[in-house]
Structure formats: C-alpha cells, structure tokens
Amino acid sequence: MRRNFTPNQTLIDRLLLNDTTAIEELSRRYCYSLYSYCMSKLNSIEDSKRIARNIFIDLWENRDTLPLNFSISVHLYTEVRKAVVQCINVRLNKDINIPAIEKQVIPGFSIIELQKARQPIHNISREESKYPTSIVKKRRYEEQWWNKYATIHIKELKHTLQKMLNFW
Amino acid sequence: MTTEVLRKKTGRYLCGLSMPAEKKQMQNWLSCTGDNKPAVSTKERELIEDEIVAQVQAYVASSLFFPKQEPWWRKITASF
User: Which of A65, A113, B12, B50 qualifies as a cystine partner to B17, CB 3.0-4.6 A?
Assistant: First the structure.
C-alpha cells in the first residue's frame, strides 16, 4: 500500500487549488474511522458508507468557504456525530427499520450505558506515563537505596560529631 | 425510552432546541464507543476504504467536469 505523509494542513490548502488528489488522500486517511463509528452507532453498512462519503463530498463542495483555523479532525468529529443523529431521526420519521432501532439504539441510552462515557481518567504520574514500567521500578529502587544509605551515613556522622563535642 | 421519545429528542437536538440535560444525554451516547465495533480484517477494511474513496473520486471528478456557476460575490471580488 502506497503511503502519503503530507501533513493535513497542506492537503487542505491544496483543496483550494482544486487538487483532487488532496481530497482523495484525506478520504483515504479518515474514511474508515468514520465508517466504523457509524457502524457502531447505526449497524447499517449502507448508511455508514453513505455518511462517510457525504462528509468528504461536502468538504469538497465547501472548500472555498473553509475558515482560516480549519481543523479536519474537529470538522469530521462534529459532522459524523450530526450525521448519525440525523440518520436516526430520518429513520424514525419515515418508520424505517424501527425494530432494529428499538433493539440496538435505545438500550444505549440507559444510565448504565451512558456512564461509560464518564469513566474517570486514571491518575498516572508524569514519570510513569513517560517511561516504561521497568525503568520506573528500577529508578524507584535506586532512589529508595540512596535514601536508606544516605540517612544511615548522616546519622552516623551526627553521632560521631556529638561524641567529639562531648569529648572536648 | 420509546421510539417516539427518541424521535422527539433527536429532532430537538438537530434543531438546537434541546434542554441542556437532553443535550448532555445525546452527547454522552455519541461518545460511548468501543463495545459493539465490528471486527473487520485488513482485507475487508481495505475494500471498504477503496469503495468509499472511489465514490468520492467519482463525485469530485464529475464536479470538475461540470463546474458550478461562480457565485456573485466572487465575480465582484474578481472585478476589483
């Protein structure tokens, strides 16, 4: 598979020059993420493909009106969420596949299911997140060793000094 | 929740008329992912990608072949 490492911002700039390869590259990069998200929410292959395709087509159509601080990831994130809600609304309005919605979508709105989106972020110390666990463990051991022996030697030094003072 | 309630909720959400709690509920539902993601092989994934990219390519090519009429504001700015 041929890989293209052009930054996103360069591809977006190239959209303004009617460069079709830029939109192809962007769609290749992100289409599967959009598709799998839609599949997890809608359970429909056709709808998922249609949503993923339409988001890129809209991006191409509105390429002249993109803001200066345009971020492709934010744009795709908001668009796919909007499209999923819109798709469910259309299905409900037109009575399309109602049993599937009752079975697959509605249980997702239960409190237990929704709490999964509010799971706490685990407190990981800065060091632990930076280095692998083995290095962190080793460093901790070294620190403990140093603290232990340093305190022993300081205590001994203090003791001898006191002895010397008493002698004088 | 019934389908009727969901229909009203999604309608209000799309129009921007939903209450904050309702909005939060919808956003939480949209943020919940991971459990029911389909397991797809690399080959299948590539096929799906190719299909979507091909559809986008076809649309983009046809849009350049039949370009839209330039909007009025662009004509004015071009004249300046």
Answer: B12
